[in-house]
Every structure is written in structure tokens, then in C-alpha cells.
Amino acid sequence: MHEKEIKIERYRMENQTVQYGETVFAGSSLMEQFPIHKLLEEHNEGKIIYNRGIGGFISRELLEAIDVCILDLKPSKVFINIGTNDLSRENIPISSLMDNYDKIITKIENAIPNVIIYLMAYYPVNYEAAEENMKACLKIRNNEKLRAANVEVEKLARKHGQRYIDLNKNLTDEQGRLKAEYTIEGLHINEDGYRAIYDDIMAYVKE
Fold this sequence. Notes:
Layout lengths: L2 H12 L8 E5 L1 H4 L3 H7 L6 E3 L7 H6 L1 H4 L7 E5 L2 H4 L6 H18 L4 E5 L14 H6 L2 H18 L2 E3 L25 H15 L2
Parallel strand pairs: 1-2, 1-3, 3-4, 4-5
Helix pairs in contact: 7-9
């Protein structure tokens, strides 16, 4: 069984004991690796957040697994960060990604009335701080392309009357790159980076 399928099955099992009406994080590895439970514990937050991110997911895969990753939990709030893996592929145009994203939001809205969906701006990357094996990917998934995609995500949020949120101010250096001290290999974010945006994302969770 593929690693993604294993995670989907694990989430399917875990979903049987969730509390409805809570907050769900969904998306790819940048969401899955958010150490939200550890940080909630450290801050003594009485909030329940279910992380249903799956590393490697492209937008089509989240659309296909939307029941397990979002709908079955009947959340009141959903934070989504999906599409960076689409943006890493030259054969997937931004328009195709946004088409899938649009369908994801529509499915959530149809299944869960009054849900609030937070569409997260894509995090920046840092080509200069990247490991050699990541540089080819970061030539495709560069900050210019990520910014262009963010414009489209914001439009999508407006179209649906949902929330576009940009948590990047504490992650970004003067050149608009992901701060070198916050990246693992130029692309993914380390724990310190997630700590830098924790207060900002929790402000939305607590709204």
C-alpha cells in the first residue's frame, strides 16, 4: 500500500472518534508537518485541531480524498494549503490547480453549511538556501510563480465569500524568500518556522 493510502486509512479510522464542529487543517506536506498538536500543548490551548495533511498530495488527490481529509469531520473551520506540489510540475498550469481548488471549496460548502474556509497563501521558498537536489524543483516552483498563484487563490476566496489569509510576514526575508533559518532544504519549513506563524494562525482559529 502506498504511503498516502496508509495515511488516508489511518485518518479514516481516527475520524470515527472526532468531535464535530472543530477545526481541520488540510493539504499537503506543508500542512501535515505543521506541529500543531505539540504547539497547542505548549501554549496550553484548549482548542481541538485535527491535522489531515498528506505529504505529496496534489490538488486532485485532496479532491478525491476530501471525505476523509475534511467532510467526515464536519468541521466549523477548515484551513487549506494545497497546490504547491501542482506548482512543482511544469505540466500542471495554475488554471488547472485553481479548477480543482474551486471544486474542493464547492464540495465543502455543499456538505457543511456555514463552514468557514481559510485559503492559505502559499509559503515562499529559498533557492539560495536549497539543497542541490531541490534546486531543479525550485526553478519551477519559484517565488514569482507562488506569488502569481496566491493572486488566484485570493480571487477564489472572494468568489466563494471565504477567507484568504497570508501568514508569510514572519517567514519572509528582505528579498521575499523563505528565511534561510526557517527552511529544511529550501522548500519545507522547520519547527522554528511554524512557531513563527503559530500566533497568527491561532488568531484565525479563535475568531
